[in-house]
């Protein structure tokens, strides 16, 4: 049966026969657990550094210094660059692993990258959980970081490749949903494990990450690799069989042929890194691979994810109440992600970005203003209960806005805009930029808060305004467009069309013919 054609913004895109089968859902679910281990570490990071027995064991000097410090200015908290560096080490390790992930994903496939990532994480989490000195702890953290980097590289790519184009947004956002579940699980584990008598609860919290990571490693053995990846590695017979299996129809000729053509184009590229970074052909896509993760971190989301308990304590909550508040924001984060799951393939990526961005700007201005009105520039005074409630409320509105815009789109867009030839390399760029700025924001947050005071929220608000304008003007809509037909969206775009290089010249046609001959 030939594929149907759907009209999308006056351009006709193919829809291939097939449906969302059980195996696609299962495979996407397993791959999306990668988000869970990433989110778990984002949430765990803040908990660990405020756990006294953990600090006494590994950072005794910092613990003593922190205890001695008398806080007179609410904006200026105790800040140890060394302790923050320890937290950042995980994200920097993930950043490094992301570069290796490109090669592993290309040579061994998405499935084995997930397996390796899950296994590295399990080993690191166990090592961290039983560590009795700092080198062991650090080694565990670096391994966990490598596991995160590998898995979050392969997961969005894998999902975007196995999902049918019509449901790609929905299935890909499972990855973001799992990130939010991981963050929430960590907030709860932090809280519960701190209640374990004897001061070793943190070991449970650290080692617990091995559970979802084990699911990824074992699950990876049970799922098929993506047909794209199989074709790319020359196993066309298995690729055809897998495609038929995941689409649930016998005749997948058309989609298979298109994938094979895309693969021939990919094979014509000798050095994908050179092609991606210096070939000049991917300027539009590369702009998004770099700016989307950069902007995602500049929304300031991880200020809330890492520092919600610190922030809520600043506005006058007691220890328990501030932990509960981070569970509240974590819950809002999870449930708001469903809005994106339900709507990304219907209203499109742009609408979510624009609505979510506007909502975030407004709530950031309000949160900054509430804090400023109570603490002023000096950071002295106390916040009334009503004000504190308003702040929590608008932090939740902000988190909700993020959860259906920059959160999921930050991973979806970079995974769906590239042709096969440079897709894995481009994903390495995205993961690396994301990890670098996650670490960077974590590193500078306390200094920024001390200097910018309530203006910190205006600072991030201004960034969100800038990125929302960027999206409004420059992001083409990608909903429902098959990944391998994505080139059209750039050719049609008022700005990017100037940068699109037509590859159908004689040389590449010749090259394609040669490769087709070799393949047959
Ligand atoms: C971001 C994380 C963030 C999380 C919050 C993810 O998309 O990459 O940095 O902590 O969303 O839900």
UniProtKB/TrEMBL annotation:
Pfam families, A to Z: Sugar_tr (PF00083)
UniProt xrefs under SUPFAM superfamilies: MFS general substrate transporter
Subcellular location: Membrane
Keyword Magnesium annotated: no
TM region(s), chain numbering: 20-40, 82-100, 112-132, 171-192, 204-223, 323-344, 356-375, 387-406, 426-449, 456-475
Topology of the protein relative to the lipid bilayer: Multi-pass membrane protein
Keywords, comma-separated and alphabetical: Membrane, Sugar transport, Symport, Transmembrane, Transmembrane helix, Transport
GO molecular function, one term: symporter activity
Domain Major facilitator superfamily (MFS) profile, residue spans: 27-479
GO cellular component: membrane
InterPro entries: MFS_dom, MFS_STP/MST-like_plant, MFS_sugar_transport-like, MFS_trans_sf, STP/PLT_plant, Sugar/inositol_transpt, Sugar_transporter_CS
Gene3D superfamilies membership: MFS general substrate transporter like domains (1.20.1250.20)
Family note: Belongs to the major facilitator superfamily. Sugar transporter (TC 2.A.1.1) family.
PANTHER family: OS02G0160400 PROTEIN, SOLUTE CARRIER FAMILY 2, FACILITATED GLUCOSE TRANSPORTER
Name assigned to this protein: Major facilitator superfamily (MFS) profile domain-containing protein
Organism expressing this protein natively: Digitaria exilis
